[in-house]
Amino acid sequence: MPIELWTARMERPLSDQEREAMLPLMPPARRERLLRMVNVEKQREPLCAYLILCLALRQRYGWKALPEVALTQLGKPYFPEYPDVHFNISHTSGAVLVGLSDQELGVDIEKIRPVGQRMMTRMARVSTAEAFFQSWVRREARAKRSGNGVGTIMRSESPLQPGEAYYELDTFPGYAAGLATRSRELPGRLHRYSLDDML
To answer: Residue 99: beta bridge partners?
Structure first.
C-alpha cells in the first residue's frame, strides 16, 4: 500500500459544539490528558489531528470508528487489532499532519517561528529558522518512525541508514513538514484540508 498523507490547516478557533463533537474521537487516555489542559484553545490541534485520522481511516479502509489505540513502551501509538495498519500524527500551531501505511512511518509538521542564532547553530548548524525547522522535522519524523522516542532528536543527526528514506512535504506556507519511512514506494497523494472541509 502506498503511503498516504492528510494535512489540515486550522485558521479559526473551534466552537464549543465542535469541540464536544470531536472529543469522543480521541482514545480515552489521550482525551483525559487533553481535558486537563487549562488553555482550551490549545485543544484545537490535538482534536483536529484525531478528526483527520478518523477521516483518513474512513477514506482508506472504510472504518467508521477509531479502533483501540495502544502505546509501545516508548510511547508510539499503534492499533493492536490491526498490526499491519501503521499511522502517525503530528500537530503544531494551526496545522496537523497524518500518515497511513502498511509499514512503520513517522511524520512531523512544525510552524516556522523565530529561533535564536545560538540554538540554530548548536542544534542544526544552520542560520535560518526555515532550515532549522526542516532539520527539526526530519529528526522528529525519523525518531517517530523508529519508535525510539523524540528524545533522540536532541543528539546530532545521524545519516540516513540503508533502506531508510526521508521526504520533505509541501503542506502550507510558513510550515516545515516531513515523512520518514523504510517503504520503497514513493509517498502517495497529500490530501489537503481546511478546518471547515473536515467538519
So the answer is: 5, 88
pLDDT tens by residue, 130-160: 999 999 999 999 999 988 766 666 666 788 8
Nearest to 92 by CA among 44, 29, 34: 44
Strands 86-92 and 95-101: antiparallel
pLDDT digits (tens, 9 = 90+) for 69-87: 999 888 889 999 999 999 9
**Residue given cell 522535522 in the structure block:** 137
Answer yes or no: are the C-beta atoms of 10 and 46 closer than 8 Å. Answer: no
Compute φ and ψ for 36, nearest 5 degrees.
Answer: -80, -10
Would you call 75 helix, strand, or coil by DSSP? coil
Which cell is 83 given?
A: 498490526
Handedness of CA 188, 168, 151, 40 (dihedral sign): negative
Which residue's entry shows cell 529558522?
Answer: 129
